[in-house]
Amino acid sequence: MKLDSEHLEILAMIVEKGGLTEGAEALGKSQPSVSRTMALLEDRIGAPLFEPGKRPLRPTELGENLARLGARIHALNAEASRLVQSYRRGHTGRLRIAGTPIFMDGVVSTFIADFQTRHPDVQIAQSYGYFDQLATSLRNGGLDMAIVPLHQGSVPADMSFVPLLPGRNVIAARAGHPLTRRKTITLADIEPYPWIAPPADSPLFRDLQRALKSIGKEDFRVSFSGGTLASIISILAGSDSLTVLPYSVVFLTRKTSGLEALRLKIEHPDRQLGMLTFDRASLPPALRQFGDFLKDEVALLEARIQHEAQVTRRRG
Amino acid sequence: MKLDSEHLEILAMIVEKGGLTEGAEALGKSQPSVSRTMALLEDRIGAPLFEPGKRPLRPTELGENLARLGARIHALNAEASRLVQSYRRGHTGRLRIAGTPIFMDGVVSTFIADFQTRHPDVQIAQSYGYFDQLATSLRNGGLDMAIVPLHQGSVPADMSFVPLLPGRNVIAARAGHPLTRRKTITLADIEPYPWIAPPADSPLFRDLQRALKSIGKEDFRVSFSGGTLASIISILAGSDSLTVLPYSVVFLTRKTSGLEALRLKIEHPDRQLGMLTFDRASLPPALRQFGDFLKDEVALLEARIQHEAQVTRRRG
DNA sequence: GTCTAATATGATCTGATGTTATGAAGCTGG
DNA sequence: CCAGCTTCATAACATCAGATCATATTAGAC
Lengths: 316, 316
Description:
Two copies of one chain form a homodimer. The first copy, chain A, is an alpha/beta fold and 316 residues long. Chain A is built from eleven helices and ten strands. The first copy, chain A, has helices at residues 5-17, 20-27, 31-45, 61-88, 101-118, 131-139, 187-190, 203-214, 229-237, 247-257, 285-315, and strands spanning 93-99, 122-128, 145-150, 159-166, 169-174, 195-197, 222-225, 243-246, 259-261, 272-278. A five-stranded mixed β-sheet of chain A has the order 2-1-3-10-4, with helices on both faces. Chain A has a three-stranded antiparallel β-sheet with strand order 8-5-9. The interface between A and B is large, with 41 and 41 residues.
């Protein structure tokens, strides 16, 4: 014999409020409805839940015990409702976000930290990858958002792309590097220094190749490759090596990493760093929250970058 | 927005069983029914509970979290069902039982102890009282059973009475009392001894008066009155006092109390000690259990009493 | 691709639950 | 002790969730 949880909740409310009429009101139901429901429940149970012939309806011992269980069921049910509400508002949920390693480590993770102080109940699972793999994960539901550099024209038809920043790369070196003071840098100037390269299959590596080619340098000596941002920063800080990094990464981490961008114009890839999502019927609401947050934060970052660029230009 | 607990339970089962079809089977429902229920729940929640386009149906993160709550709700609901079952079988419940003090203390409480080792989940609230008060309590639902001496003809019309023992009273004294060895006792023999009397409003007190009158003794000296059985036993044991007690009480407690019945025939009230209940539509099932138990136990006791009486007669 | 098993949908019926109106019965205060 | 108030139960009806069987659809596997 299975009881109806709803019935038990109603019973609990009646007992709590001390009467059927009050209970019905508290439940937002009509008094006859509640009365009949209790009659039905008593029939099924085969035992009285209320003392017979008592007018402010008083529960029997069995009624009281069942009401206690009903109250606990009600609490769980209410918790479920709260969970759903919180989820729908994007305040709860699990987000699986992946992106190109350097940008994730250098920029996005900072903002994830900020986001989580605001929405502590949103779990974020971060991982790394490049476009093809990430697109596959998005399609098969293994990922909620990819943060990748992408050309506007090459956004897959079944996906949405929200640009965050232009894919502006710079040559970076340690703050005290001989080249960082120079106003103009020639190809010959950078000739002596070894290079640190991102993994060979990363877009950043191709950027590096293209950038150097654009200033006429066809081959370059790679002294270290494949590390994450933390390794790259360590190596750069401890040597005179050079590398290519997104300017946003240099800008954000320079306080703590001691990196600087060389004043050497290199070709910018015609891509935008942005948020890629698969067009499903419904995306997790927390994803919208996160996307909006990230867009706002990155816009602020971009404004700071632009501001400094103007100041720098003005100063010469 | 209120969710249906039943829906959450179904969700929990689907997640537990790893698929809708299996879940439906485990729930004893048809597959289409469960499918539509989940569709309805998703509509109400406004978010998917299952990964879209996955064939062994797999829950989303929200689905999993709600399923956890559903499982807990299910556990509570099942506990409610068990409680009802246990109650209906008389294995759970609260019984409020009252009776005349001496008989309750001397006989019934012993059997209550035995009953509770068999049915530990039946709470028994014992109290004391005489007929009028107990009948009132039975009628207004403050009491489940009264154990009283009653004449068959004076059972109220709205009550049921199940006799347990004849209301056989004896004159009791301590085991070593001068009168306990005598085969025949005369009025003159008992003259010197003081009496212990039950409370003046108790039926036992009236029995005492009647009994003494029946053997020609019109007045008697009361040295102590009003105590419970424990006091009476103490006083009797420490003096040569006499009193009137139900034979069953003397029989059951003599081992530990050191009381004996004098071999003096006194008039027996034409009453039976028995169980009185108010005829309600439904009595607590545990009450039936207890009533049956008490009837059986007292029948055994009566058999022992009869057996001993025969042996004693034969020996002279 | 094709086949199979899992899920969704259509059509239909039953029963629970909601409503308003009204009857019955306990409680209360003079 | 009776009148009147309050509380609960019942009647009559409307609605919708939820059950069924039959069948369409589709994801996964070989």
